Amino acid sequence: MLSTSPRDQRQLKPTEIFEQTINICNGKANSSTGRLVMFGILAGIFIALAAAGSTTACSNLLSNPDTFGQAKLIQGLLFTPGLMMVLVAGSELFTGDMLILTSVLEKKVTVSRFITLLVIVFISNLVGSLIVAFLMSGSGLFSGGAGIVGATTVKIAAGKTALSFSRALILGIFCNFVVCIAVWMSFGAATTMGKLFTAFFPIWLFVVSGFEHCVANMYYIPAGILAAANQDFVAASGASAEALSTLTWSGFFVNNLLPVTLGNMIGGLFVAFAYWFVYRMSPAKK
């Protein structure tokens, strides 16, 4: 049985988190393609399951403006297990992998390898999310609560595809800034509970705030498109005709996934660059 010293159980200092991040990111960059694909699919599944569960839990509250705040609190609370599973079980999430920029800036990972990794993980996250969306559609669970789950799924998706490019971009920037801070802090935790605790509140914050996460939307919007095949769900959704007109596969990729992904990249790369700048380009005087 392995034992750990009290020193091994301590929370890392900010400067040590930076070094730990580089070590972790180096390992990610050296992963085989097969490992990245499987871990990427798993992360997509984890996030999609969290999105599905959180939608179900707050469906009746989201439909009432008077309970919107409470609905977002519940939605955020039950979405957090998605990132928790990513961090503790092990998988590759496109948004969190923006932190690999630290290793690129340290010249330990090439730009081409970084881009290749991101492309592989992005596509794999999409595959995992789509698997859950299609299985949810065939499971009959959208009919839960006399169809309120399906109606809410349609409403959420239509609201996302109806966003303007600039709004989706900005919401994406905010989202992955918070997500990458959560991942960064988790790298400093010495225990499983520490990782869960550091991830919980930032992820809850981004969901409650209404920020946009590209991998979560890889479930939300396809699930909404599939649910919209049921006209009863569409009628009960309360979504406007204009918003519903954008709820298509092209609306998913062009109206939402493109700007949100760009925004997520900006937010995440900024976190990586900011900490690299502080600890490498502008270190504290000794």
Give an account of the 3D structure.
The chain has 286 residues and is mostly helical. Residues 1-7 have low confidence and may be disordered. It is globular. The chain has one domain (32-279): Glycerol uptake facilitator protein. The protein starts with 13 loop residues before the first helix and ends in a 5-residue tail after the last helix. 51% of the residues are buried. Helix 2 (33-62) packs across helix 5 (111-139) and helix 7 packs antiparallel against helix 8. It is 76% helix and 0% strand.
Top keywords for this entry?
286 residues; mainly alpha; Glycerol uptake facilitator protein; 12 helices; globular
Short description:
With 286 residues, this protein is mainly α.
Helix and strand layout, with pairings?
Elements: H1 14-29, H2 33-62, H3 68-90, H4 101-105, H5 111-139, H6 148-161, H7 165-186, H8 192-209, H9 214-227, H10 231-237, H11 241-245, H12 249-281
Shape: globular
Task: Work out the helicity level.
Answer: over 70%
* Run of helices and strands: HHHHHHHHHHHH
| CATH fold-level topology | Glycerol uptake facilitator protein
CATH hierarchy: architecture: Up-down Bundle
Beta-sheet strand percentage? under 5%
Q: Look at the structure and name the CATH superfamily.
A: Glycerol uptake facilitator protein
Report mean pLDDT, rounded to a whole number: 93
Overall structural class, as computed from helix and strand content, comes to mainly alpha
- Spatial separation of the terminal alpha carbons: 40 Å
Instruction: Give the biggest sheet.
Output: none
Radius of gyration, in angstroms, nearest whole number: 19 Å
CATH class identity: Mainly Alpha
Number of helices, counting only DSSP H or I runs of 4 residues or more: 12
